[in-house]
Amino acid sequence: MTATYPDLRSELLVAEAAQLDGGVYPPQEDSQLLVDTMHLSGLVPRRRVLDLCTGSGFVAIAAAEMGCASVTAFDICPHAVRCSRGNAAVAGVEVDVREGSWIGALSCEPFEVVVSNPPYVPTPPDDDTETISPSAGPAWAWNAGPDGRLVLDPLCASASNLLCRGGSLLLVHSTLAGVGQSLDSLRATGLYTDVIASQWIPFGPVMSARAHWLEETGRLPRGCREEELVVIRADKP
Asked: Would the pTM of this model clear 0.85, i.e. be above it?
């Protein structure tokens, strides 16, 4: 993917996130790839959008600026909820930000578009958080169990229930978290799925800190210090 959607005040979002106790995941390449894909897909304008694991609100604000009918955003962290609400206000857009996980979204009316940049980084059994730069954001925003699928598995299993007929999911994560597993899980619920965007990026602070563990456990080829991000699209017939 080569097109890039406008910056969406990313510097402001990072600054707002950094000011909060506990921090909020700053928008990075995965967030931008998801936003670019939203733009190029043409799915968002005039549709009801749900953003799961919203963090700073970067993706939800992008949906609002693309002309969605409405956007509802969920995050489990109260710091993220306050940050995304503040960022939406500064951006001059309306985002309904709620504290809670994807489970809370199941009580809402089904959405026409669901987007998500969930935690997906494989996590060693021994806590290595102290070795990772604070610039990466809080650990809850990326730690996702030994295989990186602590959030992806239940999210993929529930995606169909979050979508109305004709609705679409756009989900971004690393290939290190098992793209095939996500595709199979989504298809098992009756969704039509495909990878519609990808991008190779150099390791950031989290992946760099875990590179040797990933190599030792066979999750990463020796000497590799980059990862492939993908965006999966799943459509409900």
From this structure: yes
